[in-house]
């Protein structure tokens, strides 16, 4: 008899519990993206530098990656709901400190960088904990839909957050937006507190992997490297994230540079792109994706990179930026939801914290350097070259123009081409194309014993 059953009626569980957590996170992320939008304007106004914006990403991602293996081991060791709450509490405290400093009129760039570092540390616990929690909260058949809903948390807030931030910042200023962000962290924490999040049953593989915290921290890497199909799938994201990371750093600066710092136009592009991502998430939630998940990963990457990223770089106004940004984002839920469903089906639930943390580190290993690459090439190479009579401007000037933003547009398009090639090469390799056949599902493996949840 499952000893966890008596405790389940005390709190919402299953898809109902998952939906409550989803709503709480959605509200919180809307406010956080409002803060991000306002901070982007603040940083660019202070520095007019793509590098300065990129460094904000670096200060977040470096601590995130460093702590990720330990965070993954702790997610598997301890209560997953507690790990999710720790992440939200830490981020809320960091935002509260920025709020106090801003209210005192003392905010400086380094304060934001320090806050981003703290958010990176606590954020390392969130993704593996949430990803692993889905496996125990909903049935295997619901993985695609649940991941489609989670993709709405990434995309949905982007529909209204820039518009809300742009409309409110003139009245309540940056301080007011930060207050809203802090309050909504409380909502997210409350939604977690009232639901039942089961702990996973122990598996034989999980029992074998038990050791001290340091050995458990590296277990995820050993697990992935022992399964060539999963490693190959991860390599698509590693290379694709390199190109999209460089391009992503430049999306806001290229719009601001080509529109004279027009925040309304930047917000319009971001919001319409988010609308497309929400549409993709809703489709994925209802549909669940291709039966062969790898098709969703590969063709999603190829189509979004070709018709989105590559063509975005040519844009000089909303007539190009809006449709290409939408094409970039509409495939995101298909890509990420399909990949997530593969990993959740293959990796034993009591190992997912460690494995997913290692997976994220490998996929994101280039992220600390992509903003630096983007900022350096934009500020010191391509932007100056495209503003003067150089060989580069003569070749690419007719396509990208020769004014401010032309160099960044060129770099974005080149990254799009690189991402397309990554997807096509990945699908051409049998080890990646047949990953769903070569790696067995975890429910085909023997469960050692059930353990009480929550």
Q: How would you explain this protein's 3D organization?
A:
The chain has 454 residues and is mainly α. The chain has one domain (5-441): Growth Hormone, Chain: A (Up-down Bundle), CATH 1.20.1250.20. It contains 19 helices and 2 strands. It has helices at 14-47, 50-77, 80-103, 109-137, 143-155, 157-193, 204-208, 213-225, 228-259, 263-287, 293-312, 318-330, 332-346, 352-364, 370-386, 391-400, 406-428, 430-433, 435-438; strands spanning 202-203, 447-449. A two-stranded antiparallel sheet has the order 1-2. Helix 2 (50-77) runs antiparallel to helix 14 (352-364) and helix 4 (109-137) packs across helix 14 (352-364). The radius of gyration is 22 Å and the shape is globular. Residues 1-9 and 447-454 have low confidence and may be disordered.
Bulk shape: globular
Largest sheet: 2 strands, antiparallel
By CATH, the superfamily comes out as: MFS general substrate transporter like domains
Total number of helical segments?
Answer: 19
* Neighbour order of strands in the largest sheet: 1-2
Helix content bin: over 70%
Mean pLDDT: 85
Low-confidence stretches: 1-9, 447-454
């Amino acid at each position: 008899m499952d000893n966890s059953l008596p405790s389940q009626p005390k709190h919402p569980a299953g898809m109902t519990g998952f939906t409550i957590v989803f709503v709480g996170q959605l509200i919180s992320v809307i406010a956080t993206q409002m803060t991000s939008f306002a901070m982007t304007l603040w940083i660019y106004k202070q520095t007019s530098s793509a590098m300065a914006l990129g460094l904000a990403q670096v200060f977040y991602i470096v601590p995130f990656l460093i702590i990720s293996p330990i965070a993954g081991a702790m997610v598997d060791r301890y209560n997953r709901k507690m790990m999710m709450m720790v992440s939200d509490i830490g981020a809320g405290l960091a935002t509260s400190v920025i709020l106090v400093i801003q209210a005192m009129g003392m905010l400086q760039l380094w304060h934001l960088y320090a806050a981003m570092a703290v958010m990176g540390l606590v954020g390392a616990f969130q993704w593996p904990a949430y990803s692993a929690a889905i496996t125990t909260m909903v049935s295997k058949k619901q993985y695609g839909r649940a991941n489609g809903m989670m993709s709405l948390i990434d995309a949905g807030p982007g529909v209204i957050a820039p518009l809300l931030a742009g409309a409110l910042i003139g009245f309540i200023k940056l301080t007011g937006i930060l207050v809203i962000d802090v309050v909504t962290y409380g909502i997210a924490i409350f939604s977690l507190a009232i639901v039942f999040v089961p702990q996973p049953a122990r598996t034989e593989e999980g029992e074998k992997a038990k050791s001290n915290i340091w050995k458990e921290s590296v277990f995820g890497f050993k697990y992935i490297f022992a399964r060539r199909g999963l490693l190959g799938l991860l390599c698509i994201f590693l290379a694709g994230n390199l190109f999209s990371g460089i391009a992503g750093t430049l999306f806001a600066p290229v719009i601001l540079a080509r529109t004279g710092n027009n925040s309304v136009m930047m917000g319009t592009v971001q919001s319409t792109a988010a609308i497309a991502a929400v549409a993709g998430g809703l489709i994925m939630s209802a549909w669940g994706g291709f039966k062969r998940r790898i098709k969703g990963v590969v063709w999603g990457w190829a189509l979004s990179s070709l018709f989105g990223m590559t063509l975005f770089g040519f844009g000089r106004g909303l007539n190009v930026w809006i449709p290409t940004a939408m094409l970039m984002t509409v495939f995101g839920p298909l890509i990420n939801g399909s990949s997530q469903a593969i990993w959740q089906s293959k990796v034993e639930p009591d190992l997912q914290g460690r494995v997913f943390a290692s997976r994220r580190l490998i996929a994101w290993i280039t992220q600390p350097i992509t903003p630096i690459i983007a900022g350096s090439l934009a500020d010191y190479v391509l932007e100056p070259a495209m503003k003067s009579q150089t060989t580069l401007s003569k070749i690419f000037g007719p396509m990208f123009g020769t004014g401010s933003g032309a160099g960044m547009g060129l770099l974005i398009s080149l990254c799009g081409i690189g991402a397309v090639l990554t997807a096509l090469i990945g699908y051409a390799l049998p080890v990646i194309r047949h990953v769903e056949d070569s790696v067995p599902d975890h429910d085909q493996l023997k469960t050692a014993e059930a353990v009480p949840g929550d």
